[in-house]
């Protein structure tokens, strides 16, 4: 057996390639402004922390399906926030952060050699990783309804998109769901930035206008990492087709893929409160506005970016030249080719740094223009 039978199927872990640029940026006298990974930096809201602490005395095993209270919170939130009518407990499943689900879903669906998993041409890299982990073939698309459906078992949608911030319209989603159902292709729609629309109002695949009020063949993926600053808690969930989720539940029970009980309690609190989501949105809105203006003033063009936590920006040059240029200003960003070769002239700028760091970046971008 090869010493690396599975990991050799996977791409190089992209963030390792950024390390030298991080050193350059860190040498800036006023320190690095890290706009690369997009990790939340603002405090966990007080009511969520209180719920976590109140559930700290949890000596027993949690269940994979979660508490009744958690399942009620998931169906209630999806009805209220996504317009998903009539969801029952059989239509929900908590997961240990959505990255885990994305990476292991094709394996848990029993996919393998000869099967295809499709994802947007510019995409969060874990869709491809998930396909490769089980030996399926990843296929990139521009318009999913133009894919060859033969052998296609799983179709990933992502709206709002990481990295571009593009939002799929109601019409695009409806057309895609109809196409997938016609061809018997399972749709998983990653909607983890849905509550962060700026110039667009993102719509869930579970909205009755899109799915016709039935969840057959469709599942939406949601995460509390960004909307509630809970990336450190690993709190996410999927909603939709009961048959698919029932199968995943069986497998995940055998695999012990449980959310810790205090995190389940924290999730219930987070989904029951809209105030902290609005406060966090306001922080990101301000950072996004000033960063966008500073990038444009510095000569960047920003494309899409109408939702989510990233500015998709270009100076019409190879992305690594832009990464190097910004690293010399002490600003670290992600090269667009991390998200597919089609991104090789863009960089992804996260708006997830503190106000103080964002303002430092804005000042450096302005100074470098006038210098
Ligand atoms: C599109 C997309 N899906 C899923 C995730 C994973 O999020 P988490 O594992 O924190 O729920 C991310 C994280 O950045 C993402 O951008």
UniProtKB/TrEMBL annotation:
Identify which cofactors the protein needs according to its UniProt entry. pyridoxal 5'-phosphate
* InterPro entries (UniProt xref): Aminotransferase_I/II_large, LL-DAP_aminotransferase, OxyQ, PyrdxlP-dep_Trfase, PyrdxlP-dep_Trfase_major, PyrdxlP-dep_Trfase_small
What is the enzyme's main class? transferase
Q: Which Pfam families match?
A: Aminotran_1_2
Which EC number(s) does the record attach to this protein?
2.6.1.17
A single GO molecular function, which one? pyridoxal phosphate binding
Residue span(s) of domain Aminotransferase class I/classII large: 32-365
Superkingdom of origin: Bacteria
What keywords would UniProt list here?
Aminotransferase, Transferase
NCBIfam families, from UniProt? DapC_actino
Q: What is this protein called?
A: Succinyldiaminopimelate transaminase
Provenance organism: Streptomyces halstedii
Which gene name belongs to this protein?
Answer: dapC
